[in-house]
Design brief:
330 residues, 11% strand, alpha/beta, globular, 9 helices, eight-stranded parallel β-barrel
Length: 330
Amino acid sequence: MTHASTPAPTPEGPRRPGEPALAALGLAAPAGHPTDSSPHSFPDGGTWRTEIPSVEGPEALGAVLKEASRLDVPVHRVSQGSGVWMLSDAEITEMVEASAERDIELCLFTGPRGTWDTGASTRTASGGAGLRARGHDALAGCVEDALRATELGVPSLLVADEGVLWTLHRMRERGLLPDDTTLKVSALVGPVNPASVAVYEHLGADSVNVPSDLTLTHFTEIRRVSRVPLDLYVEAPDDLGGYVRMYEAAELIRRAAPLYLKFGLSKAPGIYPYGGHLRDTALDTARERVRRGRLVLDLLARHRADGGMSPLGSRRPGPLTRFPLTPEYR
């Protein structure tokens, strides 16, 4: 017996996990409401892209690219968590060239962050100021990293402080950074309501990483006020909660588009700040993140929900809303 409120699935349309069997038992889920769907997309018309995070250097990038080819996992973006200052010029150049050869967006983290600074507040139970840049010197370090990275050809910068974001956006508008540099907000900043996501968009964010524990309703609420691309760990590392939301991938795309699906890894040791002493862990986890991506893509295909992916090589966010740069901020 099919639930009266749920239309029978069609061969060409997407289906929900377990839908035919549950419908036969009278346990079908209510039909999704059209107003829940995001009205936005990337400028190329796609609704989702992919990202492999925690790619900490050229060797890890090589492992990701090799595994992505082996498992046929499309990759739009790779991101690094340790920071620009943890890489030599030669290493950055190698990563730029390898990612450009595959037309993959390379995103590197900027500057000193509070978790590795001399302040003790981040080690308190409250977490204190978190990853923010403490004082002028930390802000200056982030700016130095941004200038160095973009001079070496890095197209995308990861930031964890609203002041750093606003500063880099102003630099981009003034031509101090390339005008096509994309600015991505870290998962550890954690905007969790529509107004806070909109503020980061206005400050210059081209991509905002939201916490992985937001509900589906939260995404619908965000999409009513902001069209900035969102980044979401479909599987989050343990220090971000360890959530595994693979079965929700199709619904997350429907609610949150345009969306980067990030293939993280729970139950894995931390590797920031990365060095050679963590080599085996970094390479093993890099390969496993790609495999997790393959699992998500296979699941989307089984649910007939794998359409709508942006063409490979796409990285532009589309038109976004910014705070006006008044004379004092130019």
